[in-house]
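Mods, move this if it's the wrong board.
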Amino acid sequence: MKVLHIDAEKYWRGGQQQAVYLYEGMLKSGYQCGFVCCPGSQLQQYFETSQLNYHCLAFRSELDIISAFKLALLCRRYSYNILQLHSSHSLSWGLLAKLFYPNLKLVATRRVDFPIGKNPLSAFKYKTKAVNKIVAVSDNIRRVLINCGVAAEKIAVIHSGIDLAKFDRAQVPENFYKTWNIPAESIIVGTVAAFAGHKDYPNFLKAASLAVKENPDLFFMAVGGGNLLPEMQNLAYELGLGGHIAFTGFQKDIGQFLKAFDIFVLASCLEGLGTSVLEAMCVGLPVIGTKAGGIGEMITNGENGLLVSPKNPIELSQAILTLAQNPLLREEYGSNALNSVQKFSKDQMIDKYLELYTSL
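Not the wrong board. Structure tokens:
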């Protein structure tokens, strides 16, 4: 069994972290595997910095036959027999490579709960018999795939996993409050999410505006980068959140932010699973999430956090105020979060992938 991981994306988000966890876990356990990423990608930067072996191939489009041929040659040369395809673009690449090297087994991971696109190529990618297995990172994604016509027996559910000890040594810098202009004695409500449409930052910001009017001690932090960041900064200004919010941009060291937060919020309207919730739970934060995608598979309402309706800033603001005004409840939910997050370890995730590969 020789597995080649493929990720054709240039950016680094939760999916890339999951791919790296799996790759590093397999290497640590002595499995023969490799990784293909694109030149100039953040994955390439990570592998260079970490001194991990990788292959670099350019992937230019969904129909890039030349790069697919190069990928097939690479598989033949190193005798890879399973391709682990970590994104939709990667799946296209793997399917084309299989045309030149039919013996390859294909495993595709689906991390988003968007319905499969209506164009014929998207439908073909997930329904074709050339794909041996599709991994859904939540039960909700599995349901979405089945509703889109994907055969149920082709889908395996493997929840994303996190490094439970990742933030054990993280500390809040002494100048943290000064750096981000946070008033003393503030209750910090934070989120960690890319500025993408499905993360629904307007919901987060509108809820923040409503909550601040009732509790001026609240301070909000948005950790992440993305195309919508300038637009959301303007919206925050229009909502009168000046002095009550900080936009940090993309941050590599999110541990210091999570350790500074009092409450964590994920306001998404669509979400595959949302590993930022898991990372917040592993530092003992009470969490508020929407009833979207796989978020409800991590948060048990009234036990380790609160669940609210998507696209409902009034309901979200009330949940924020409930936790802000009740420190004992925050402590209880945070303690329960630490216990419940244990079942989402990266080691369990890796073991389940290895069982899947072995079955092929």
